[in-house]
Amino acid sequence: MKKFGFTLVELLVVIAIIGMLVGLLLPAVQQARESARRMQCSNKLHQLSLGILNYESANKGFPYGCYSWEDQCDAKRWNGSEKRWYEDHNWYSYVMAYIEQEGIHAQLDFNYMMSHETNYNARTTKCSIFACPSDIGQVENEWGHKQWAKLRSNYVINWGNTNYGQTNIGSPSNSASVDPDHYDPNNQKFRGSPFVPKRKNPMSQIKDGLSNTLMMSETLILPHTGSAWGGPISEVSVSVGGQTFNGFRTPNSNVGDKVIQSPSVDICASNGIPAPTRVSGHLNQVLTARSHHPGGVNVARCDGSVSFVVNGIDVYTWQVLSTAAGLEQIGVE
C-alpha cells in the first residue's frame, strides 16, 4: 500500500508561499483598519461640531473659548487665593449638554472654576467622543488630586492663525512664497477666530464664511507624566491653552509647539509629539493640529462639515482657513 504525504521541501515551499501572502496582505489589512479609524474620528468631529452649532443656535453664539482671561476672574470661584483664570471652563464644559452627555453636564457647576473640587467628577469622567481611535486614548493627568486631576483628549477648537494670546507674531519660516498682498512676511497678523475669550462669539462674526473657516481639529494626546504636570498639550478640559490649536503652522509640523511647560523629550516622542519649546506666559503659546492619521488631520468647519487636510497644505491656505474675519483670498498667486 502506497503512502502519500508532503516532503520536507514541499512543506517548506508551502510555508514560504503562505508567509509571502501574509506579508502582501498585512499592509492592506492595516490600511483598511486605519481607514476605518479615520472614519470613526471624522464622525466624532462631526458630532462635536454639530453640538457646537446646536449650542450656537440656542445661545446666539459659539461657546466661550475660555470663561476667564488674563487674571480677570473672581477668586471665590477658585479653591485658593490666586486668581487662576487658566483653570476655568471653556467650550468643553459648555458643549456637554449638546452632545448627549447629560451625565457629565449634570456634574458641572459653572459657579466654580473647572479645577475647583466641586467639578472633580466632571473633569475626570472619560467620554469616548473625545478620543480618536488612532491615538492612545484619553489619559489621566495627576489623576488623584482633587484640583489638578484632568483628562487629556484629542479634539480642540480653532483659536486663530497666531498664538493663544490671539496677538500678532512673527511669520513661520516656510511662508516666503505667499502673496505679499495678503500676507506680511515680517509679521503674522491675527485675523479673528470663531472662538474668543470671556464671551460667546456670534456666528455673524465669522465673516470669511462658515465653510471657509475651521472650527475644530485634532491634537495628539500627551502620555501619562506621573505626578508632575506635563503642560498644556491635549489638556482640553481647562483653559491653559491645550483646548485649542493655532493655524500658525501646518498640520503635523516637525517644529514643536511653544508651551509654558512640557515633559521630557522621551515622553513626547513616545507618542510622536515633536519636542516642544518652553515660553514664558500662557498667551505666548502656539499649539499645532496633529494626528496619527497618515498624511494629515481631520478638521471640522464652522458649517459642520468634516474633511481631511493633508500635511503638505500651503501654509498661507491653512492660515486663511484658520482665520474668521481676515477676508483673505485662497489660491491667489
Give an overview of the whole structure:
By secondary structure, this protein is of the alpha/beta class. 24% of the residues lie in helices and 10% in strands. The protein is built from six helices and nine strands; from the N terminus they run H-H-H-H-E-E-E-E-E-E-H-E-E-E-H. It has a five-stranded mixed beta sheet with strand order 5-3-4-8-9, with helices on one face. Helix 5 links the parallel strand 6 (258-259) and strand 7. Mean pLDDT is 89; it is low at 174-183.
- Percent range for β-strand residues: 5-15%
Task: Give, in spatial order, the strands making up the sheet with the most strands.
Answer: 5-3-4-8-9
Give the % helix.
10-25%
Main pleated-sheet profile:
5 strands, mixed
Tell me the structural class.
alpha/beta
Unreliable segments of 5+ consecutive residues: 174-183
The span between the termini is 84 Å
What order do the helices and strands follow?
HHHHEEEEEEHEEEH
Number of helices: 6
Global morphology: globular
Mean pLDDT across every amino acid position: 89
Q: Using only CA atoms, what is the Rg? A: 23 Å
The strand count comes to: 9
